[in-house]
Amino acid sequence: MSQDVSTEAVLEAVEPEAAQEAGVAKKKLGWGFWLAVGWIVLIVLLAIFAPWLPLKDPNENFIDIQGKGRPPYGPSADHWLGSDQDARDMLSRTIYGARVSLVVGFSAVAFGFIVGGTVGLVSGFVRGIFDKITSFIMLVLLSFPALILAILITSLMERSLWTIALTLGILSVAPVGRLARAASLVFAEREFVLAARTMGAKPSHIMLRELLPNVLIPMSALALLGTAIAIVAEGGLAFLGLSVEKGSTWGKLILTGANSRQLEEAPWIAFVPIAALFLTVMALNFAGDRLRDYFDVRELAL
Amino acid sequence: MAGTGKAHLRDASDILLRVEDMVVEFPVDRRSVVHAVSGISFDVAKGETLGLVGESGCGKSTTAKAIIQIPRPTSGTVNFQGTDLNTLDDAELRAMRSQIQMIFQDPIASLNPRRTVRRIVSEGLVVSNTTVSKPGWALLGLAVILAVAAGFTSLWVLLAGLLAGLAGGFIILKGVFRPSIGGCSDERVDEIITAVGLDPVEAAKRRPHEYSGGQCQRVSVARTLVLDPEIVICDEPVSALDVSVQAQILNMLEDMKERYGITLVFISHDLSVVRNVSDRLAVMYLGKMCEIGDSDLIYAQPAHPYTQVLLAALPDPTNPHAGAVDALDSELPSPINPPSGCRFRTRCPRAEAICAEQEPQIAQVGTGDQWVACHFPLADGS
Amino acid sequence: MVVLLLLAVSMLTFVAMNVLGDPLFNILGPIAGDTENPESIAKIEAAEAQYYLDKPLPERYVRWLGDFVTGDMGVRFASDGQPPVSGLIKERLPRSLVLMGMAQVLALAIAIPWGVASAAGSLGGTPSGPRSWRFLAPFFLKATVIAAFAALLFGPTVTVGVVVWFVVLLSAHQVAGTNSVAKRFVDVVKRLAQNFSSALSFGFISMPNFALAVFLYYVFALKLGLFPLRYDASDSFLTRMWQLFLPALTLSLPGAAVYQRLLRTDLITTLQEDFILMARAKGVSKRRVLFRHALRPSMFSVVTVFGINAGALVGGALVVETFFGIPGIGTAVVEAILREDFPVVLAIVMIVAAGFVILNFLVDLLYSVLDPRVRS
Amino acid sequence: MNSPKTTGVLLDVNEYSVGFRTERGLAQVVDKVSFQLERGSTLGIVGESGSGKSVLNRSLMGLISSNRQVEEGSALFDGEELVGRDRQNFWGNRIGMIFQDPMTSLNPVMRIGRQLFEPLRQHLAMNKEQATERAVELLTQVGIPEPKRRLRQYPHELSGGMRQRVMIAIALAGEPELLIADEPTTALDVTVQKYILDLLGELQTDIGMAIILITHDLGVARGRTDDIMEMYGGRVMELSPSEELFSDMSHPYTQALFSAIPRVDQPKHTRLTPISGAPPDPIEPPSGCRFSPRCVYAQDDCTTTLPELRGSDEHQFACFYPVGTDASMQARSTNTTRGHTATGLKIQTAGTS
Known about the structure:
Distance between the termini of chain A: 20 Å
Order of helices and strands of chain B: EEEHEEHEHHHHHHEHEHEEHHHEE
Largest interface: A-C, 53 and 69 residues
Radius of gyration of chain A: 24 Å
Structural class of chain B: alpha/beta
CATH class of one domain in chain A: Mainly Alpha
CATH architecture of one domain in chain A: Orthogonal Bundle
Largest sheet of chain A: none
Oligomer: heterotetramer
Low-confidence stretches of chain A: 1-26, 298-302
Number of helices of chain B: 13
Shape of chain A: elongated
CATH topology of one domain in chain B: Rossmann fold
CATH topology of one domain in chain A: MetI-like fold
Strand content of chain B: 15-25%
Distance between the termini of chain B: 18 Å
Structural class of chain A: mainly alpha
Strand order of the largest sheet of chain B: 6-7-8-3-9-10-12-11
Mean pLDDT of chain A: 75
CATH class of one domain in chain B: Alpha Beta
Low-confidence stretches of chain B: 129-133, 175-183
Helix content of chain B: 25-40%
Radius of gyration of chain B: 25 Å
Number of strands of chain A: 0
Strand content of chain A: under 5%
CATH superfamily of one domain in chain B: P-loop containing nucleotide triphosphate hydrolases
C-alpha cells in the first residue's frame, strides 16, 4: 500500500499537471471494502429477521444428559456453534445478541451525529460566543471519562435499551461535535466560501449549500467508525453487568463465558460472541477507513 | 512615499468608486497591531481598469477585500455610486453585493468542489434574488422534531423517525433549494458560459476538479458576469497560471470588459501583466501609496524611486529599464512597527534626513495624470 | 479555564448522584424505608446529620467542595465504620496509575517503530541490498521471534514449517536480482507483509479491550502459563509489576494501533514535503531523514490523541482491572457506583477529570517543544 | 575542495528518458533528451508546467525512486554513468540542489545551524568547531548579515529571500561540482529575485561550479545562462546559446511562447497572441511532433513523423518548418488560406485567435 503512495506523490510533487494528465486513477475502494460492507449487511439482516429465521429459541435449554452428558456441549450438528453452560444454543443467542448491540450502536451514532454534527458545523462557521459556549460544554463532556459517565447514568436509571442508546448518544456528541467543528473550520477558510459571501449569500445559505455538502461526506465516513466505537462501548457496559437487563447482548455473552473455569473447559462460549463482535467492529472500521481514504479526507484525522 | 493627501482624486461625473483615507489594521496581540493599509486614497472611473501593483506584504489584497467589506476597513470611506459602503448594515450591503464582484488567485480553490460547474455559475442568481430558504428551514426543523418526539414511545420508532427525518430533510434540501431558475436566466447562464470560452453542455455535467486552472478561472469570471456587476476586483487572477494560459485569460478579460461594460480593479505583483491590462496604475509599498496615474506615463518615466527599482528588477526579456538601478539588498521592514516618515526610506537609494521626519504628500508630476508621494521624485524619470 | 472545567464536572456528578439516586437508602439500606420504628428513625436522623442530607442541594455541594479542596474527601457510605474515602484512594490510585502509565509507555514503544517502519516505504530510495547487514539483521530477528511463537503455541511440526519458509524466502531475496520469478515472489511477500501489518493494526483497533483481555489471558496465562493467573497485593514489588504486565499490554495494544495509524499517515504526508527532498539532496541517509527530520514534525496528532486517549484509557483500565481482578481505582468506582456510594464516585471522578485536564495542559506544552513556531 | 578541473564536459546526457507505469499505461514524462553541460557554465532549462523539466533533473539525480519508474538512455557525470546506479553518494558532495519554495524547503523545527552542519559533517568530516566556522563563512558568502546569530535561529524567523540564501549555502556546503536550481526564485518578489539570481552568478565565478537553472520564465533565463534548453511535452524543442534564442529563434513553440508574454515596452491593451489548447497527455501524446496540435505552422508530416533535433552544433531545434525559413512562410500561408492547420487548429485571418 505504501509503495503506490510514492508514485502518485512523486508525480504530484514533481509535476502536478503531469499527475492529472497521467490519469492516475482515483484510489478504488478495493475488494476489502465490499467484503466489509457485505459482512455488515449480513449481520444487520440476520438481526432484523432473526425471529423468522429457522433458529432455535435462544433461551430454551436443550439438555441431553444421555447423549452428550452435562452441558456445555461443543459445536455439533444440531448446535453449530455449541451451547453455553445452560445448554442454550450459542448461534441463536449470538444472532439475537446482535439485535441489541447494533440498535444501540446505530442509534447512538445517529443521535451523536445529528446533535453534535449540527452544533459543530454551526459553531465552526459562526464562531463568536456560540462557538465558545458549545466548545466549553464539549470540553466538559470530553474531560469526563466516558465509561464512568456511562456507568453513572445507567446505574442511576432503569437500564432499558432506550436509556443505554441515549447515554451512548450523549457521549458521542462531544467527539463528533469537535470533528464537525474542525471540518467546518477548514472549509469555512476556503476561498469558495469567501466567494459565496461576496455574492451576497446569507450565512444560513452558506452553511446549508456550501459547508454542509462538503462536511457531510467526511462525516459519513466517520459515522461507520463511530458506530463501531458505540458497539464496543455497549459491550464494555455489558461486560461490567450494566447493560440491558432483559435480553442478551454480545457483551453479556462474553461476560458469561469469560471466567477462567469456563475458558478452560468451553472456550467457545466466550470466543463465539467475541468473534461476532470483533468481525463486525473490524468491518465497520475498515469500511469507514476506506471511505475516508476514498474521499481523501486528510484534515480529519480521527 | 507614505502618500497621504488626496490631491490626485478626480471629481469627474463618471467616477464609480472613490476610496478615501482607507486604514486597515489587524490586532496581533494586546500590545501590537499590523498596519496592513495606512491611509490609501484612489478612484476608478466607469469602464476604466485600475492596476494595483506592489510586492507581497504591501497591502494590495487587503485593500481589495476592504473595498468589499470582508473584513470591513478600520476607518476611511469607500464611496460606491454615491453610497459609503462602510455605513451600510449587513442586509443593505448584501443587496449591493451583486454590483461589486471579486475573482481570486487560486482558480480551483475558489470553486465549490461538490457542485457542477453550471450550478456554480448560476449560483449567483439563486443567492441574490431568492428568499426561498425560510420555508425550507421550517420544514427541516419540523421533520427533526417529529422524529425525536416519535422516538419517546419506543426505540424502533425513534430509529424509524430519525431515518424519516434525515430523508425528509435531504429531500427538502435538494428540492426546495433548487428553485427552477427563471426562463430568461437559463439562456443568460449559457450565453455567458459560451462567452468566456466554455461549453455549457460540458459544464452541466462536470465538476471543477475535471477542469484545468485556466478553465476554472473562466468559470469564476462567468460566475461574476451572471450578476451583471459594475466593478470586478481581480486579486492576482493569472499569477497561478502558465504563460500561454495567462495570455488566454487576459484576452478573455479584455473581451468581457468591452462586451459587458465592466470596470476592473486588477491586482498583481507582475508589472508586465499590469502594463498590458491597466489604463491607470497605483504602486503600493508597505500599506502606503507611492505613485498613481496613467500607466503609459508611469512606465515611460517612473517618478518614484521604488517604481524605478521594481521596473529595473523585472526579468521581462525586452525590458528597457533592465539594470537601470541595482537590486535592493535589504529586507522588507515589519508592518507591525513601520519606519517613521516615508516607509521606503530604509531601502531608498535617494533617502535624506527629511524622509525620516516628514511624510511626503502626494503631488502632481508635470502636467499629466501622474502623482507621486516623495520628497525627491525622479524629475526626469531617467 | 481549567478550574472552571473541574467545577462544571463536579457539579454535574453531584447533581446526578443526588437527584437520580437515593443517598439515604444507600447508606442505611432498607431501614431508611420504615419511618415508624423509632430506632431506625434515630439512625436516619444521624445519617442525615452526618451527611448533611437535610441541607438544600447547593449548600451541600459547597460544603463538599470546601472539604474536597482541603483534602478531606468525606467518608464512605457504609454502615461498617465509614472508613475515610481518601484512605481508599491512597491505597488504590497508585496501582491504577502504574497500570495506565505502563500501558501508555508500551503503546508508544510499540507504535513509533511500527509507524516509522510502515511509512519508510513511501520514502523511496533504493532498498538496501539483500546481503547488507541492514537487511539481514531485522530479517533474522523477525524469523526467530515468529519461530519461537510457533514452537510455544503449536508445537514442533509447525515450527519446522516456519523455519523452512524463512529459508526459502531468504534464498529468494538473494536470487531476486537475477531471476524474475524470485523477484515477483519477493514482491508478493512484501505486499502481503504490508497488508498483514495494516490488517494487524486494524485488528487491534477493532478488538474491544475486554475481548482482547479474554483472548490474551487465554493464550498467555492459561495456555502458556507465562503470566500469573491472579494479582496478589501482598507479593513482592517485582512480581506485582510482572502481574501488571499482561493487563498493561491488553490496555496498550489498541492505543498502539491508533498511534501507529496516525503516525504512519502523518509521516507519509511529511515525507512528501520539500524539506525532506532537500535533506535527501544533501546526502542525508534514509534512516537519519526518517528519524531526525520526518519524525518530529509528524508527532502532532499522536500527541493530541495521547491526551484525549487518557480519558478512554481510564475506561479501559476499569474493564481490565475488573477482569484481571486488580483492586485499582477502576474496580473501586464500579463498586461505588453500584452501591451509589457517591462520595467515592465524586472523589474518583474529580481525580480522573483533573488528571485528564492536567495531562492535556502538558500536551499543549509539548506542542511548543515539538514546534518552535508555536513558541513565538 | 575537490580539485576543480576548469574545462571539459561535466555532464553528458544522451537519449535519456523517464516514464512512470500507471493504470492507464506508461506516462512518458521525459522522452529522449540529450544535452551537454560544460564545467563552470550555466544551462537554463525553460518549459511550462508539465513539460518534464523538473522530472528530468530529479530523476537524473536519482531522487525519484519508485518501482514504477522506467529510466532509459545514459548520463555521464564526470565520466561516471548515472542511469541505473544508486546515486546516493552523489547527493550533496558532487551534485547540490535547491528548490522553489523557501517556506517549505527548510526543516521548520530544526535550527539553521544544524541543517548546515549535516552536509559539512557527512561529506567533509568536519568536527563541531570547523563546521561552525565553515557555516559562518558560507552564510557570509551568500550575503546574510550577522551569520553567527542566524545559526541558532529557526527558518520561520527569516524572510523568504533570506531563507533562499540559507538554502543556497546548504547546497554549497558539500562543495558540489554541479548545482541544480529548480525554479529558485519563482516564489520570491521581483526585487529579491534579482538579488538571488545575481548571487548565483557571483558564486559560480568564485567557485567555478556548473549550474542548471530550471524556470518557466524566459526573462529569468535571459542574460543569466550560457545556453537555454526549451522543453515541451517531455521533449527538447530548441537548444541554443541564450542570446541567440531571442535574436534568432527557430522553433515555433519558442516564437509562440515569446509572443504570449505581456511586455513592458508594449502600449497598454495590446492584444496578446495566446497558444490555444493545452499541454499534451504524457500517456497518449499526439503522434508526430508533440506541439503540432497547437502549432500554427503544422503540416501533415508534423503529425506523422517525430522531428529529431537538427541545425548547427550549438543551436539545435526539433522542427521541419523552423521560424524564418521560407519553408515555414510557405506552411503558414497554406494554413491561413485553408483556414486551419493539419491538426485542425483554426486560424482566424484577422490574427486574433
